[in-house]
Amino acid sequence: MTRDNYQNEVNEGQSDSELRLRKTRKAHHIDLAVQYNEQSQTDAWKDIRFVHHSLPELNEQDIDLTTRVADHTWSVPLYINAMTGGIDEAKVINQNLAEVARKHGLAIAVGSQSAALADTKVVDTYRIVREIMQDGLVLANVSGAVPANEAFRAVEMIQADYLQLHLNFPQEIVMPEGDRNFKGVRANIIEILNDSPVPVIVKEVGFGMSMELYAELAAAGVKVIDVSGRGGTNFAWIESRRRKDQRSVFEDWGQTTPISLLEAQRFMNSIEFLASGGIRTALDMAKALALGAHAVGVAGAVLRVFYKGGKQAVSDTIGTWLHDLRSVMLALGAQSVDDLRTMPIVVTGDSQDWAGARGINIEMLASRSRHG
Ligand SMILES: Cc1cc2nc3c(=O)[nH]c(=O)nc-3n(C[C@H](O)[C@H](O)[C@H](O)COP(=O)(O)O)c2cc1C
């Protein structure tokens, strides 16, 4: 939704039918995301390989999982990414996921808060996350097209520590009721950056990003980016299933998460990157961190586990991921997330072809020396 459209909606108030449509869409997104993540087999992470080293010289108890994102310390480099809010089912999901996030020390984002900005009756479906995460890190979420004052209301609504601005334009294009005018978003992001009370994170929703975009966002003053690449939840597929004709030309669109991180290599000193999109195992997480991410986000895989086994299953899965991440770090001899970023990695397959075509120096990643 562009800024102008958004403002019209807020000025005129949303009709009951628009609010109903939004609620139905949210319920569909949850059902279809679970269905998609159930059947999806794509795995771009197999292109990224660590180099085994037989002398790790590390004691597991010395491994430190803390990381830094825009001046906050996170106790683990993992967060639950933006998914939902605005309907009763979303409140239940947010409550359960926030309880798991609190238990394991994860940061957690709420889903797009547009619904609560338009209708105060649903504020509690988002605020429940802050109520549970009294001392934890919580991320607000709105579209990059939402005017600054509305974006800051979203931050205040949940006393957020960060503000995520999502860019989801292929999704809008596939959505029958989606927006078609994407002008003015960059200027809007700059306005938000100038006055935001909290660090701003610009994020995709599963189509990934490119070096051209990083250059543009860096020039605009963006300091933190969640690449959210292709390989996990696929909003082109989800939105096409909501259409009568089930048509979409975007189901194979965009950059995978590993490729989005390869595209980011030149910007590692000027931007802090977060990685999400198709993260399913601790090995994926370690690879994303080795490619330079400060933390790794999961959405669809967590939702799928929640629908299969409830809160306990999500908690067990996250416990296993953190345990396995330590195991991978131990095998590599990486004592910290910073150490992981120095480990040699070999880029193969489609990701290698892409890097070659785009002039990305993967030899440097393969030959770098452990611990810098
Ligand atoms: C049901 C569902 C709803 C989502 N809603 C939002 C949203 O409101 N705002 C947003 O920025 N991203 C949203 N996302 C995208 C995720 O935050 C994430 O970027 C994307 O799903 C890729 O991660 P994954 O492969 O782990 O699912 C949603 C994802 C799912 C599964």
From TrEMBL:
Tell me, in one coarse class, where this protein mainly resides: cytoplasm
Cellular component (GO) terms are: cytoplasm
- Chloroplast keyword on record: no
Q: Where on this chain does substrate bind?
A: R25, K26, Q171
Q: Which residues form the signal peptide?
A: none
Q: Which SMART domains match?
A: IMPDH (SM01240)
Q: What CDD domains is this protein classified in? A: IDI-2_FMN (cd02811)
Q: Does the keyword Nucleus apply?
A: no
Q: Where in the cell is it found?
A: Cytoplasm
Swiss-Prot/TrEMBL cofactor(s): Mg(2+); FMN; NADPH
The chain positions of domain FMN-dependent dehydrogenase read 189-341
Q: Which reaction does it catalyse?
A: isopentenyl diphosphate = dimethylallyl diphosphate
Instruction: Extract the Gene3D superfamilies matched here.
Output: Aldolase class I (3.20.20.70)
* Pfam families per UniProt: FMN_dh
GO: which molecular function terms? FMN binding; isopentenyl-diphosphate delta-isomerase activity; magnesium ion binding; NADPH binding; oxidoreductase activity
Which sites bind Mg(2+)? E172
Give the enzyme's EC designation. 5.3.3.2
Q: Which biological processes are named by the entry's GO terms?
A: isoprenoid biosynthetic process
List keywords of the entry alphabetically. Cytoplasm, Flavoprotein, FMN, Isomerase, Isoprene biosynthesis, Magnesium, Metal-binding, NADP
Top EC group: isomerase
Which HAMAP family does its entry note? Idi_2
Please report the name of this protein according to its UniProt entry: Isopentenyl-diphosphate delta-isomerase
Organism in which the protein naturally occurs: Alicyclobacillus ferrooxydans
